[in-house]
Amino acid sequence: MDCIFCKIASGEIKSSFVGENDWFVAFDDINPVAPTHVLVVPRKHVKSLEELAKYDTECMRSFFELVEQIVELKGIKTSGYRLIVNQGSDSGQEVEHLHFHILGGRKLGRLG
Question: Where is this motif: Histidine triad motif (predicted)?
């Protein structure tokens, strides 16, 4: 498989993780759109939210626990942050491996 996020998650492509657990890895985005811009990526190749929904509750609990650890580490828990997932080409998804963006570190404008 030629998926860049699978290669990062497996360690084939070196990256400094800002957080990780059994299900997900998190690292700073190389093209940030905010002072804090972290990607949270499933370790296993998952293409969609629907596919992720088939996993058990432990997976989802571990996701939200990791997000909480990251926002505390990055110092944006109190000031606020945005958690975004882009699904499909119309949303702007560029890599066909489900990933979540954590944005913060400044006031973020309205969406839409």
Answer: 97-101
Q: Which pair of tokens denotes residue 68?
A: 């909480």
Residue 112 is predicted with a pLDDT of: 63
Would you give the distance in Å from CA 26 to the centre of its chain?
A: 6
CA–CA distance, 61 with 64 (Å, rounded to integer): 5
Give me the catalytic one of 37, 97, 99, 101.
Answer: 99
State pTM to two decimals: 0.92
Tell the burial category of 96 from Cβ atoms under 10 Å away from its Cβ (0-12, 13-18, 19+).
Answer: middle
End-to-end, the C-alpha distance of the chain in Å comes to: 35
Mean per-residue pLDDT over the chain, rounded: 93
Residue 99 appears among annotated catalytic residues: yes
What is the average pLDDT across 14-36?
96
CATH number of 4-104: 3.30.428.10
CA distance 91 to 15: 26
Domain spans of the chain, in order of start = 4-104
